[in-house]
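Posting for a labmate who doesn't have an account.
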Amino acid sequence: MKKINRKARFDYKLLEKYEAGISLIGAEVKEIKKGNIDLSQSYAKPIGNEIYLINAIVPVQGISDYKSTRSRKLLLHKNEIFSINAKVKAKKLTLVPTKVYTRGPLVKVEIALAKSKKRFQKKELLKKKDIERELERQLKDSVKI
């Protein structure tokens, strides 16, 4: 199972990627393996000497007092955490989750250091995609004739 955060690629320019484990409870693991996770509004944040995934939505039924958007600790090596912390503070970058996937019995999260795109950059990207789509349609129509 692999869940990709498409919005991250559109909203940010991704610079460096890291693979991290994630601290979950049993019911969350089941739901993530089914593909029930929403990363579209989530981000990662260094707090002290740890990094947390914030605002990722994992809906779990049957547990009372469960908060689906709770913060979850990401498991990284200490030197990776210090490196990420330094880059986030120095270059004013954001940590964005790009993928959640399973590797055997483990659930992994791919996070990326990212720089936010400006509004005009997003509009240019959409225009470029529309032009490419139109060219492909015209090519298909010319082949059919």
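Reply:
Got it, the structure tokens are right above this. The chain has four helices and seven strands.
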